[in-house]
Structure formats: C-alpha cells, structure tokens
Amino acid sequence: MRIVVTGGTGFTGKVLVKRLLSEGHEVLALDYQEGFKTAEIKDWGGEVIIGSVTDKSVVEKALKGADIVHHLAAAFRELNVPESYYDEVNVEGTRNVLEIAEKQGVKKFVYCSTCGVHGNIDHPPADESAPINAADYYQQTKYLAEPIVQEFAARGMKCTILRPTALYGPGDKDRFGMIFRRINKGSFPIFGSGKVFYHPVYVENYVDATLLAQVPGVGDGETYLIGDERYLSIEELVLEVATAMGVRDTVKIPHYPLMPLRIAGHLTEWACKPFGVAPPIFPRRVDWYRQNRAFDISKAKRDLAYQPMVTLEEGLKNTYEWYRAENFL
C-alpha cells in the first residue's frame, strides 16, 4: 500500500516511516522541515516532501495515490509565532489533509492527538471519557481538530483518533533527553512531592497501535488512549532511568518547593519570547512536576488488540544506549 505520514521527519513519524517501509509499504514522509538524519528515510527507500500541511497544493501532491494517511504533523513548541499559528497548523492543517484525503479516496485516516487534551487527571487512571481540560495552545488545538476528524468520519470516511501518552525512545533528542542528561550529571531535582503520576509510551509500542488502527474497519470513528502498561510517579520514573543508566545507587534526588518554579517558568518564557530564544524552563515543563498523567488503555486493548510489548525497563535501556551512541548525554 501507499502510505503518507505527515510529520514524517520528526521523532515519532520517522520511527513509523521506518516500520512501514520494513513491512514492504510505499511510504512518503511530509514535513515542514527536515529532522534528525532525515536522509536515512531515502536510504531506507522512502520519499520525503518538505512542505506544510497548511499548503493545500503540497498536501495534494503528497497524498496523490495514497491508501492510508497517518496525520502526525503539528505545531508543538514554536518560537516567534502568534497563537494563531497553532490553529493554522493543528486545526486548519488537519482539515486540509482530511479534505484532500477524502477527495482522493484514502481508505483510512489515523489522527495522532495527545493525552494532554485531558489535562490534569483528578481521579487516575482516566479513560477516553474523562473531561477535556487542555491547558495550553498545543493541547487545545490538538483537541479542536478531533471534532473535525469525527465530522469526516460521520460522512463515511474511515478515521481513527489516537491519544498517545508521553512518547519516548531512540530518536527522541528532547523529551526524555533532559531526564537522562541531568541524571548523567549525578543529580535530578524534583520540585514538589514527586508523587504525581506520569504515563510513558515507548515509541515502538505506539507504532504498534498505529499499525493496528490503520486497518479499515478497525476502530473506525473511535478514539483511543495509547500508553505503556505501566504508569508511575515522576520520582519512580527518575529512579527507573537511573537504573537503566546503572547509577541508581549514586544519583541524588533533592526536593524543592514547586511554587517558585511555577513563577520562574512563566517569567522565563515571557522574557525569552521576544528574542526567539528557547526558554530553559516554561510552564509546560513545570506542569510535569504537578499534573497527574495516568490512563486506562483497556479500550485500545479490547478494540485494537493493542498490547504494549516493550516494557519500561527495556525501553529506557534502549533509549540510554541510543543517547550514548549518538553522544547526546
């Protein structure tokens, strides 16, 4: 089959592209910029188009002859852009891809949303029916695209929405990189209790779910939370990372009050934005210390036959070895 992956040069998209190619599919990655070692996609036999999902002519070119579309492209944390940029990419960009996919007779559309649409989980673990409480522009606009996907599904298009938890794994330079790099220096500070829950998902486990969801007739019109089998407190996560690195007995985990960090996060983001500088700390990073993220994945297990095969211990070890090989520590 011919499969298009928007956001295909990014961390998750590239892993998905590689898997699809390994299974013998014809794969095209569409993204607004090159990512880490994008040339590898062509080496594996894939195609790459650099362009935005906001440009209909680019999307039409990319989707020509496509059987399946995995829509991962999104504005995540962008500098020097107005708030409307998130709407343009995450909402209207999704509509563009859906309209052209429908016109070209795509057999299945899989939309990658985020568990962040639920915000803080008051009564963990939460399932797909939990209240929507998106806290920032990224999460809000990712959710605003979901009803558009459902609109096309109601018109007969085969669509499935996936809400991944915290993605990590080899190829991820940034998300878990901060945790590994700090522990590599011998200390990881925790602000607050460290008892709030965090729910990771190893990237290959998420890719398993996307392949299950891409089958027409499976999960059509439905929304699924996709995570690993296990969620844990952030302090437990730090200790698991330290174990994977072989430094559990020596890493220091000092605790500090949370409120000064929350204030610093807002002030730092505000101060850095006019200069186009990535803030070292920002509100979403602070939320990591204070918001529960723990989910019930039983619906995906039931409907998609999803089963996270890579354990947290294995995934963290694989990720650590990749960071070492790429000199990211």
Show the helix and strand layout.
Layout: E1 2-6, H1 11-22, E2 26-31, H2 39-43, E3 47-50, H3 56-63, E4 68-71, H4 84-103, E5 108-112, H5 137-154, E6 159-164, E7 166-168, H6 177-184, E8 190-191, E9 197-198, E10 200-202, H7 203-213, E11 223-226, E12 232-233, H8 234-245, E13 255-256, H9 259-272, H10 283-290, H11 298-304, H12 312-325
Parallel strand pairs: 1-2, 1-4, 2-3, 4-5, 5-6, 6-11, 7-10, 8-13
Antiparallel strand pairs: 9-12
Describe this protein's structure.
With 329 residues, the chain is an alpha/beta fold. The protein has a domain at 2-172 and 199-231 and 294-310: Rossmann fold, CATH 3.40.50.720. Helix content is 42%, strand content 15%. Helix 2 links the parallel strand 2 (26-31) and strand 3 (47-50).
The assigned structural class equals alpha/beta
* Integer average pLDDT: 93
Distance between the ends: 39 Å
Write down the CATH topology of the domain at 2-172 and 199-231 and 294-310: Rossmann fold
* CATH architecture classification name of the domain at 2-172 and 199-231 and 294-310: 3-Layer(aba) Sandwich
The strand line-up of the biggest sheet is 3-2-1-4-5-6-11
CATH C-level category of the domain at 2-172 and 199-231 and 294-310: Alpha Beta
How many helical elements?
Answer: 12
Q: How would you describe the shape?
A: globular
Strand percentage lies at 5-15%
Outline the low-pLDDT stretches.
Answer: none
How many beta-strand runs?
A: 13
Give the ordered list of helices and strands. EHEHEHEHEHEEHEEEHEEHEHHHH
Largest sheet: 7 strands, parallel
Radius of gyration: 19 Å
Q: Determine the CATH superfamily of the domain at 2-172 and 199-231 and 294-310.
A: NAD(P)-binding Rossmann-like Domain
Range of helix content: 40-55%
